[in-house]
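To fix ideas, we now present one chain and its tokenised fold:
***
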Amino acid sequence: MEKILDVRIGVILGFALVMISGIYLSGHSYSIIAGAAVKFVMLIAGFVGCLVIGKPKESLRLTLPIVMMIAIGLSAFATLLIYRGANTAFDPILLIGIMVFAYMFTRRIPFTSFARLFSGLLFGLTCIAIIVWVLNEANVDIPNYSYVSPSGATYNTIWICTWMQDSNRFMGPFWESGLYASFAVLAILLETCFTGRRARRPFVVVLLIGIGLSMSTAGYLLAVLVLYIAFRKDRKISIVWDMATLIFVIVGFSYSDQLLQLLYSINPDVFWKMVEGGITTSTRIFSPLACLQVFSENPITGLGMSLATEQYNMLKPVFNIDSLTSTSAFMLAAFGILGVTYTIILACAAYRQKARFSPMTCIFIFVLLFLIVNKEPHFNLFFTYVVLFYLCKVDQEQRDYEHPEIPVSKYDSQENSMMVGL
């Protein structure tokens, strides 16, 4: 029965990954009406999939994720009334629908099962993408579907693997190499810290290869951070090493293009491809500031998703930015002060790990999550909410649900012995 359940979960996870990758949100220039229909159909299919998995394993109660969904819903409703005609109901309905879908999923599946299946799914898709990448490098013609995005970029896809016409940056099943790196880092975090078993080293190695091929500087820095978390969670590390690692990652993350230029000056033949097409430092630094300026126009309810996006786009030339990167700041711009619940979820997700890990490890986990969701927009990504909602409820009740056979007094020693790092 457990194997059958794992197969069902795997099918749902595979579907959900397709839901946020490949052609689905890759910038395909289909009409707004057709795009909206596809999104709603896939979301409904996700709800049906949750029902197929089975009944919730825990009782419904008021939790922080539910508070966030209520807060976002109230703010969205207010902006629809205040800025009538400037916002569409579709965007917040889809967003809340994805949150509800993620919450339903976390109430039906044990965290450890999800962690194993998620890392396994990314491992399998990365293996396929590596094969495709090698074939492309060897100039082997691969049957695929090609299309041009509104920005003019040409994408090739076989649905479970996507690549750009004039770039060999590794993207896996996603529409952007940096997003692949983010999810690969999350998969490594789950594999090394939350499966309840010894980390599968081949999985970690393959995911690291994928991150390496993505040519994402931010991805490299996040990989360093997640490996440091995996290494230090069961060990006593000097506070000097902790601070040095944090400063290195944060400074490198903020000034990634200067770092790339330095590497390029050292060896242009190796690093020239990484210099092209990366997110600039000005975008990474000033994107949150642009969102905060939009937020200042109505800090109570925000401007709504549609109007906030429109205002943000008008500020792009002012701040010299080319895209949206900060999820935390955009949630404030779109939903006002209630949008801070998204960042509170991040903090709660890290704080709830205090029974498993040291306070410093929890801080590292918060920094990792915060950087991931603020290096590209994650506000409508299903898997990000699933991971955050799981981490938010890793408390005693969740422990009893996942390990009912382990007495409370023995859980910590049992958990520490089970979760051996790299």
About this structure: DSSP finds 19 helices and three strands in the chain. The radius of gyration is 21 Å. The beta strands are 145-148, 154-157, 162-164.
